[in-house]
Amino acid sequence: MELVVDTNILISALVKDSKARELLCNERLILYAPEQILLEINAHREEIIAKAGISRRRFQGLLALLMVQISVVRTALFRKFLKEALKIAPHPEDVPFLALAMAYNVPIWSNDKGLKGQHRIRVYSTAELLEVLRNP
Predict the structure, then answer these.
(1) Treating both helix axes as pointing N-terminal to C-terminal, what angle do 45-52 and 7-15 enclose, rounded to 10 degrees?
(2) Distances from the Cα of 52 to the Cαs of 37, 60, 62, 103, in angstroms?
(3) How many structural domains comprise the chain?
(4) Nearest one of 136, 135, 131 to 23, comparing CA atoms
(5) Residue 83 sits in which domain range?
(6) pLDDT tens digit string along 72-99?
(7) Sheet of 2-5: strands edge to edge?
(8) CA distance 55 to 70
(9) Distance, CA of 127 to CA of 124 (rounded, Å)
(10) What's the pTM?
(11) If DSSP codes are grouped into helix, strand and coil, which group holds residue 94?
(12) For residue 90, how many C-alpha atoms fall within 13 Å in the half-sphere facing its CB?
């Protein structure tokens, strides 16, 4: 199953050993994210480290391990969908994720309730994704 991964999923996986972390390593999933995901993670790095109670070194190692599973897509490859995504995005930071999902014609994996409020792109929460994978 192909999905665009929202930043909140990656943050959740970095903060604790969770279902999100388990799913990020699931070989049945083909995961994409816009390059913005790295900027957002970096902007929240100290907060994530504090919440997780880990060292900066452990954070970097864990981030590198999880990012191996995610194909980071340059904005140039989905630029033509940005205007359309802007019209339906509940928050400006959601625009690249929606545009990438439109360009690749795949759902988004996110626990953001606001993102689920738009009706153009299917959004799976972690719980919904676990259910889909249990019942192929």
Answers:
(1) 40
(2) 19, 12, 11, 34
(3) 1
(4) 131
(5) 2-134
(6) 999 999 999 999 999 999 999 999 999 9
(7) 70-73, 30-34, 2-5, 108-109, 123-124
(8) 23
(9) 8
(10) 0.93
(11) helix
(12) 10
The backbone region for 81, taken as left when phi is positive above 0, alpha when psi lies in -120 to 50, beta otherwise, is alpha
Token output for 60 = 């970097």
Q: What confidence tens digit (pLDDT) does each residue in 28-45 have?
A: 999 999 999 999 999 999
Of residues 27, 30, 14, 6, the one with CA closest to residue 123: 6
Q: Is the CB of residue 90 less than 8 Å from the CB of residue 118?
A: yes
| One-letter amino acid for residue 111 of the chain | N
Cα distance between residue 4 and residue 9, in whole Å: 10
Q: Kindly state the tokens that stand for 113.
A: 């309730």
Torsion of the alpha carbons at 103, 104, 105 and 109, rounded to the nearest 10: -110
Q: What is the CATH number of the domain that holds 91?
A: 3.40.50.1010
Structure token pair of residue 15: 């903060």
